[in-house]
Predict the 3D structure of the following.
Amino acid sequence: KVKPSLKPVETRKRSGKTQKDEGSIAAVEEGEPLSPSAQMFHEPNFNVYIIVIMGCKTPVDLPVIKSNLVHTLLRHPRFSSVQVEDEKEKGKFRWVPTKVDLEKHIIVPEIEPGMDSPDQFVEDYVSNLSKTTISRTQPLWDIHILNVKTSDAEAVGVFRIHHSLGDGTSLLSLLLACTRQISDPEALPTIPVKKSKGKKDRRDYGRIWGWLVGICWFLALMWNTAVAIIMFTATLLFLKDSESPIKGPPGVELMPRRFVYRTVSLEDIKMVKNALNATVNDVALGVTQAGLSRYLNWRYAETKKRHGATEFRNNLPKNIRLRSTLLINLRPSVGGIQALAAMMEKDTEVKWGNRIGYVLLPITIALRSNPLDYVREAKATVDRRKHSLEAVFTNSIAEVVLKLFGIKAASALSHRVITRTTMCFTNLVGPLEEIGFCGHPLAYLAPGCYGQPHGLMVNFQSYVNKMTFVVSADEGTIPDPHRLCDDIVKALELAKDAVLERGQARGTT
């Protein structure tokens, strides 16, 4: 049964007083300029939209959705403002509050009853969205309601937001702030936080030994950062990824996307994580590497069939260079994905907007006899990137270029570096308990993007005890994204089986 309304969450204005307006922040001044990073997302080569596919366990009640959005999403200034060009400074835009006409933002297409393949209808519908943009005469977001029963949901909602409104962390936080726990309709979702080491885990090194450990830690940080800067500079100047079947052609950011997703057990991922003393992100990246290796081996076999090649043999070229841009949240760590109330409040550490950096992450493409080797290699690579300032550097260099030379130059720099890599990878942490969006219980969350200068993007999103990953692919580059999804699922199954065979399985936390 659909619940008719949401209770507002308490937020505080700058004055410290409490108000009962969900999603409210201290009012933005009319004409506040767009941040440089937000404006860069309007450049033709970075006109990026975020898509969130939400599977609902009940048919969508349109009046309930409209009623709740008025008290949640529309309270947020970014979602009730248009971006207007500054008359004095041509090429620069400002946020101007406007009255939102929900009829223009909630789209309900006519659906033929008794269609043969509802799943294919939803997939085609979302793909067709990537061929369109939202008019800048209105706030840059919309929600598409598809009241059609699929294999994993009773109805589907598609939330589309222009990237200039915020980064993935901001927007996911806002989406979650519009939800409540199914078990407790007044409670916001709980997001997992990184556990800090307790006193029993801290080693008493002694003063001299402690200094030595600290010096080694610092030297490793500087070394990893120096290597990352050298690789970034080389990529900017001349270093490119190898040409491969999954590397998009020039101008791929203008091509439509196909969004295909699979849902796997988060407990299986945690089993592998615990066996290798890794993280969920390490396992997600590891099985992505393994899946890509399987998929590329098949693609190369298809091109070499006239020479007797098959997918059961190693058809991969030697020394293939394939890298991913891994997006990093640069917000201060205050407990995972921050609750909207804290993020929206001025004078707090955490601010709304685009606060992301990226690292250039080598992806291992090879056929391994031990499926756990992919996760070990991913962990080693990610650990080096974590223990560096690469994400801060990439964010800072873009800001410096932007301030000195303007939006066009900053956009060109980022575009040049990113197009010399092959793909993008993200992993977002979701709620621990089942939630409802405007009273509608959700079966899954599946985020993706279009407009980015890559032919392939892989997004992982956890939700309760499940993990959904989304392959956003240019069909000209990857004509069979379902096959790639199946290969990633198979890679996780092989890793799980390897853990069970070795008797390494431990409790999943």
Summary: Residues 1-29, 197-202, 333-339, 341-350 have pLDDT under 50 and may be disordered. The first strand starts at residue 11 and ends at 12. The radius of gyration is 23 Å.
